[in-house]
Amino acid sequence: MSFSSFHGNSETVRQIREMLARERFPHGVVLAGPAGSGKYTLATMVARAVNCLDQPTTDGLPDYCGRCSNCLRIAQLEDLESRVAEAVEARDGLKEAEKKETRLFIQTHPDVLVIPPDPPQMMIKVDQVRRVIESIYFRPSEGKERVFIFTDAAFMKEAANSLLKVLEEPPEFATIFLLAENAGELLPTIRSRAL
Ligand SMILES: [Zn+2]
Q: What is the DSSP string of the chain?
């Protein structure tokens, strides 16, 4: 596995890898594109590249090895649908009171957190953003960068406002990905702060 296995917009991939080469990856990145365009896969590839323990260079740009412990664990995020289904099933098994307070997250590596829209409303909720805020200032434990991936642009209003606060002052070692089918879906303020 490497960036060469990405079957999508090669220009976007090149730009992202050039940003990686500069070693100052932006703290907020919006990846917009239709469903199935690979934006989630690309975000997990970047999470691997920034945390790879044996980072190779291909075509003169940073890549990831796909074999180290960080690459392997982050790769487990790839099948998003299955991971979300497992998280929903785990929550359904909880007691009624706990169920209400449990928000959906997907984590296969301590430094990479995926935040999917929370059913049944299928929106990102304020408690999910709060968890990001609570954890974002901790230094990476096993990788080099903490990566947060919001898989959908449907934010509850309060959640969007909380996110703006983190985007104002993110720690130097964290990157937040916002995935959207259309960048226009995001509040204009989030859009302008994220890139
Ligand atoms: Zn690796």
A: --GGG--S-HHHHHHHHHHHHTT---SEEEEE--TTSSHHHHHHHHHHHHH-TT--EETTEE---S-SHHHHHHHTTS-HHHHHHHHHHHHHTS-HHHHHHPPP-EEEETTEEEEPPBTTTTBB-HHHHHHHHHHHTSPPSSSSSEEEEE--S-B-HHHHHHHHHHHHS--TTEEEEEEESSGGGS-HHHHHHH-
